[in-house]
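User: TFIIF subunit, Tieghemostelium lacteum:
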Amino acid sequence: MNEDRNDSLVGEINTDNAENQVWLVKVPKFLVDHWKTRGTNEVGKIHIKGGNNIFLSVSGVDIYEEFQLTTSPIPENQPIKIFSQDKDGALALEGNIGLKCDLRMNINSATYRNLCKKRTTLYNTRTSVIKKLDDTKPIYVNSKFKLSAKMPVSSVAVKSTADKMERKSEDEVIDMLLNAFEENKYYDLKTLVQITEQPMSYLKQILLKTCDLNRSGPNKNMYQIKPEYTR
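Assistant: Predicted structure for TFIIF subunit:
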């Protein structure tokens, strides 16, 4: 690092708000989009009904909706700080993350059902793009090339397909799983990968949260949705 760069990092940090305790909340995209339309108006209210019974009500919507906040503390040995920077480049410490929160909708609400329908329609609408290539040149294949009988052609093809899978957000994948389990009670992992078109390792993480894996009985190695996610 050169001396000019070092000099640019030297300066004071405003710590007036260093003791502030802040909540870090994971917010669904559709709610973020709604809040952007609110401008400087109130976006919602937090209702603490005792203990971990915490809810968020959203302002500016036609139908009253409450979101449950599930909280988890930040480990003391892994503190998270919040900093801000103004247009002049001055830094300020705005506080500490005291709690991490996830918002959870009521899966039996009309709002949630309408959201699932919109997402399902979006997922099933595939678009293709035709791109014109300019200045293309022919490619010649050496006629002496031979395909070895020992080459694992099928496994290469499967890997290539898996690599092309685009990760969707966790909320989107959960919606796809809920729609699938409305049709059947049990699915094996391979079928769920085909339904969601998600990488197997990523899908397993979400299944661990939303589904139970039967380890014995007639439905051994089959997944079923957890009761709290049942519609």
